[in-house]
Amino acid sequence: MRIGELATAVGVTTRTVRHYHHLGLLPEPERLSNGYRNYTLRHAVVLARIRRLTELGLGLSEVRDVLADDAGRDLVEVLTELDEDLARQEEAIRERRARLRALLDAEEDLPAEGPVSPELAALFAEMAHIPHDSPMAAKDREMLALIETTADPEQRARLMSLVGGVLGTPAGAERVLAVYALLDALADAPTDDPRVDEAARALADCIPRELLPADVDIDQDDSFLRAFYADFAPAQAEAIRRALRIVTREER
Fold first, then answer.
1. Residue of 53, 8, 11, 45 lying closest to 26 (CA atoms)
2. From CA 14, how far away is CA 37, in angstroms rounded?
3. pTM, whole model, 2 decimals?
4. Separate counts of helices (H) and strands (E) for the chain
5. pLDDT (tens digit, 9 = 90+) per residue, 21-40?
6. Angle of CA points 165, 225, 159, to nearest 5°
7. Which of 2, 11, 108, 137 is the most buried (most CB within 10 A)?
8. DSSP state, 79?
9. Which of 162, 241, 156, 152 is nearest to 209 (CA)?
10. Which of 52, 108, 45 is nearest to 75 (CA)?
11. Helix axis angle, 153-167 relative to 170-184, nearest 10°?
12. Where are any strands of DSSP class E within the chain?
């Protein structure tokens, strides 16, 4: 058989056959006097087996193990591992679908920053009374979504508890609203505007002391902090920097 006839018989492409030759999965056949490969039924049998194994989900390195005479694992062992891996994938898919279903069921309440966890979605629901046209409120929500995404489960639970404690009372919610208004007003202000200090102290009163470690260096030359401050207008960034200094006891 020619390579095209072999590929057609097994249901693959000639490119696939050449690729398997290159990887050493399919033995090279003898060549005729004119240089063409001359495939036998044995090549078709091996090629068909490779196709069946890859359709089951085996990687080509695993297929090589199965085909090799000195394979350290037999076919039953390889297929058992594949079955266990597929079971893990199915469980992961079920969990992802459950999360998607929860988001779709709450379509009307889905936050713009979504998808987020149910806990953060509930926190955003508590912030529903905050004016949607507040740029600082929008940045705050984006930052909460970022922190939640990058934090481990324990840190995430702690964050939700601390922030929820601030917004959980009418007085706390009012303080947060006032801080957003103060910071929004600094959008076009110079860094020496007297309102910067007022906004910093008001913001510090809203930040739970437990949220930041006492030894954190707010002014360190850290790429994330530089990017964080650069996302705000200069006067807003200065107010936030001063507030963090107060919280970390660098200023009293």
1. 45
2. 12
3. 0.53
4. 12, 2
5. 999 999 999 998 888 889 99
6. 20
7. 137
8. H
9. 162
10. 52
11. 90
12. 30-31, 37-38
